[in-house]
Amino acid sequence: MLSVMSAPQGPTFRELVVQALSSVEHGYDLLAPKFDHTAYRTPAAVLDSVTGALRGLGPFDRGLDVCCGTGAGMGALRQVCRERITGVDFSAGMLAVARARTPEVPGAPHPDWVRADARALPFGPVFDLAVSFGAFGHFLPRERPGLFAQVHSVLRPGGRFAFPIVAPARPGSRPYWSLLAFDTAMRLRNALWWPRFVMYYRTFRLAEVREELIRTGFEVELRALEELGRRADGSPRCRLVVATRPV
């Protein structure tokens, strides 16, 4: 899987190894300057498709990007929110890059940056929209209910929590074996090395996630992101999960 990080401006193999042997927080501090040149950054096609779907649900006043990284999702919030947008992440390095790459734009919502753990969000119920892109693999399944409860607590009544979820790789396919190999390597690494680096691709399953959101108190709907295509069986390649805090 390290071979996916092959852009010339991206991290070297040695830098990736050092990151992988660090904690999640310190690893991303190290990776931050080159993160946008890796395959782990959310693709522009996904961001554009999600933004289009959110326009149909908004407009919103205040938006929150949970685990914002270098700020890719803040661009989506800027297009659908009218007042302020906030990015929260526990990596100081990622926030520094996000701040530098997201200048204020006249007439657009002001961006705020907050260093905090998503499992303990330092906000009251002030947001109309929360989004997250590509961060859920950093949370163990047992941590997700607490994470979802935190997001629920910072949304106003009627507020929405939206994130894309990609259809799972077909068993036996090349992506299936690649993801299985990556997750197996991470579990072995975490069994032998401390601190842990939690990053698993196969633990965020739609049926389980939907049930956990409902138990948290959300009303959940799924929207196909048609711009990203459909699989041979007609199912969407990617869906937008829209979890609403009831009024």
UniProtKB/TrEMBL annotation:
Coiled coil: none
A family per Pfam: Methyltransf_25
Domain of life: Bacteria
PANTHER family linked to this entry: METHYLTRANSFERASE (PTHR42912)
CDD domains per record: AdoMet_MTases
InterPro entries: Methyltransf_25 (IPR041698), Methyltransf_Superfamily (IPR050508), SAM-dependent_MTases_sf (IPR029063)
Protein name in UniProt: Methyltransferase domain-containing protein
Methyltransferase domain span: 64-159
Gene Ontology molecular function, alphabetical: methyltransferase activity
